[in-house]
Amino acid sequence: MRHYDIERAKLEIFSILKGQWSNGMVPHMVLNPIVRDDRGKRLRDSRVWRSWLNPYSPDDISTSGITQPPILAEAIVRIGEKMRWPERRTWYKSVFPALVAYHKWLYDERDPIRKD
Fold first, then answer.
1. What is the residue-wise DSSP string for 57-112?
2. Rounded CA gap, 101 and 116, in Å?
3. How many Å apart are CA 5 and CA 47, to the nearest integer?
4. pTM for this one?
5. Distance from C-alpha of 25 to C-alpha of 101, rounded to nearest angstrom
6. CA 23, CA 56: separation in Å to the nearest integer?
7. What is the pLDDT at residue 35?
8. Along the 116 residues of the chain, how does pLDDT read in single tens digits?
9. Up-side HSE of residue 6: CA atoms within 13 Å toward CB?
10. Which of 38, 52, 58, 80 could join 88 via S-S bond, C-beta 3.0 to 4.6 A?
11. Where are the domains of the chain?
């Protein structure tokens, strides 16, 4: 998306970061609270994951309970490469805290080599 719509690419990153858990985990899906099929029947989307049972999940957003491979930083850098420097710096500063929290969570909870 960064090749043809930078603002939309940024919006996608901000949208997924909206679902970031308090422990830093970034879920692979932020779910629409109401999804209906083609006949208007409500589907069970957010209830499948039951992320609200985890104390780290957001209170106001339903998400999945798993994450994707950690390529978020790469996506953020690639989007930034399409911007001029002042805008790039603002972009990086806006996502940096969430990105650091995510990588800290990955290191603390998902590093198979790390030993406590």
1. S-SS-EE-S----S-HHHHHHHHHTTS-HHHHHHHHHHHHHHHHHHHHHIIIII-S
2. 19
3. 33
4. 0.84
5. 8
6. 6
7. 63
8. 566 789 999 999 999 999 999 999 999 999 876 666 666 655 555 567 888 899 999 998 889 999 998 899 999 999 999 999 999 999 999 999 999 999 999 999 988 887 66
9. 11
10. 80
11. 6-110
CA–CA separation, 76 vs 102, rounded Å? 13
The tokens describing 46, both together, are 């957010």
> Which residue reads 């790039």 in tokens?
88
Task: Read off the DSSP letter of residue 45.
Answer: S
CB atoms within 10 A of CB 43: 12
Taking the C-alpha atoms of residue 100 and residue 24, their distance in angstroms, rounded to an integer, is 8
Hey, what amino acid is at 15? S
